[in-house]
Amino acid sequence: MDDDWLELIPDEAAEAPGRAGTWTIAVIDDDPAVHEGTRYALAGYSLDGRGLDILSAHSGQEARALLAERRDVAIVLLDVVMETDDAGLQLVDYIRRELKEETVRIILRTGQPGQAPERRVIVDYDINDYKAKTELTADKLFTSLTAALRAYQQLRRLDETRRGLEIIIDAAPMLLDHKSMQRLAEGVLTQVASLLNVDCAGILVLREDEREDGNRAPAGADGASQSGFEGGSKGGAQGGFCVLAGSGLYGGYVGRDPGWPLDPGIQPLVEQAFAARRHSFGDGLSTLYVQTASGSEIVALIDTDRPLSDTDRALITLLAGRLSVAFDNVILYERLQRANVTLEQRVVERTAELIRANRRLDMQRSDLRRANSLKTEILGTIAHDLKNPLSVILGRSEMLADLIGLDQGAAPGSDDARAAMRTQVDHIRTSATRLIDMIDSLMADAMNDALDITLRREPVDLAGLAREVCEANRPLAESKGQRLITDLAGPLQLCGDAERLREALDNLVSNAIKYSYPGGTITVRVRAEAGDYVCAVADQGPGLSPEDAGRLFGRYQRLSAKPTGGEGSTGLGLSIVKRIAELHGGRAEALSDGPGQGAVFSMRFPKEAVGVP
């Protein structure tokens, strides 16, 4: 049902409860002549093709018993004064308060109107009409009775609609709460019987949704399709149809093998409902059609012991409109359950994959550590086995150059030979120097990449170490006309690796010589300062630009300044200084007042971090 409107039924289409084809009225009066006159006046009366069933009671007490037994009375023609002066009024109170009959219409008739003031009686006792017996001629009785029956008809319709809506509202949470298709189908049949207020039998048949290729979803092992309907009866699905539930004489279809086709008496009705895709109401058998948002279709066959009134049809159509939501709720719930199972399986599989990947990474990490250790060992061998012989070659080439220079006063005929020898010696020295630089670069790179560098902890005089480094670099400074000044405190003992610290200091001092202008001054200071040991190298070079500050200690970073003597640079020196300082629990720093103002590079070691007592 597309709309949620509840259509009001025209008067001529309505039916009232009671014996088939009659309106039930009760004449309550202690005068037998009134009963005879009423029956005579209403003889042949008919409204909407229905005649009258007239009941009689001659006292208030007799009327109580009659009305308690017959709850289908539409109109009460009531005398006021019977066994007592207010017997009729007391009966009105009994009808309204004890029997709680609010729809029955009461027309009060009295031969003594002065004893019961008309307005007060109508207001206080919920009386629908008040007539003196002298007023009720045949025509006036006909008019009053017809108006009262019309009012009763409308009230009964409203009461049925209200009761039906209450049932629908109460059923909605229950239907939406079902989590299986079979339980929902059983609940639907129960609610339909309650809504119609009759004993009825029913059967719910499901047709699976079709796929885009026109083939229906295959049925599962339980007889329901794999689209999620777990409630289908085993063996009850055939050709896309499945019996979900049955009640009354149709209860045997649930669990029957095969469940489809149905018996010849109802099979055509169900097929017609699927083909027409709409509700159909008959005298005893009616079909309801529901299509879900997921594309599945459901037909409910209802077998009642009476034809459905227009009010019944409107209410059951409204209920059917709400069933689509309930069925979709079950479908989505079952899909969610399957999705959760699939997701859990995928999580387990993914977790297993991650565990295996982590194991592979651990193995690769171990392999990398071994490879890194092997690389460091090989490069150490290079340093030991190649660098020392190269240093000898370099030293001997310098000695040869000196000897050639001392032999300047030899015979002139040997000048060409000496020139050739000097050229070859220069080539040897240049190549040896280049090889030494390459080995130093490889060693520095290996040290910088090593993940597990171990330090040899031993007492080191930081000031003495700085003095040795300065003396080793002094000839290079003097060759550029630079002054190398030392400002060293007394012995400053720390626990560290002497070779690593020597390498870091050598990098700072050689960098200062390399980047300072010829004729400049380089100052090396070692002192205790605020609980730290500080090794600082100040130069008079080009200083640092703002761009240099952010990349000073990075690997392969070349600063904006260039070496002043044409020396080469790998861009690793400062990164090595930083790494060695951090391995000793310290830090590397650089200060400059700006371009052209020189710079101070330093290493700062906290006493407690380097094992100093």
Automatic annotation (TrEMBL):
Residue ranges of the region described as Disordered: 213-232
Enzyme Commission number(s) of this protein: 2.7.13.3
SMART domains tied to this protein: HATPase_c, HisKA, REC
Pfam families in the record: DUF3369, HATPase_c, HisKA, Response_reg
UniProt keywords, alphabetically: Kinase, Phosphoprotein, Transferase
GO molecular function: phosphorelay response regulator activity; phosphorelay sensor kinase activity; protein kinase activator activity
Reactions listed under catalytic activity: ATP + protein L-histidine = ADP + protein N-phospho-L-histidine
Highest taxon listed in the record's lineage: Bacteria
Domain Histidine kinase: 381-609
An annotated GO BP: osmosensory signaling via phosphorelay pathway
Boundaries of every Response regulatory domain copy: 24-148
4-aspartylphosphate, modified sites: D79
The protein's name: histidine kinase
Organism expressing this protein natively: Methylorubrum thiocyanatum
Lineage: Bacteria, Pseudomonadati, Pseudomonadota, Alphaproteobacteria, Hyphomicrobiales
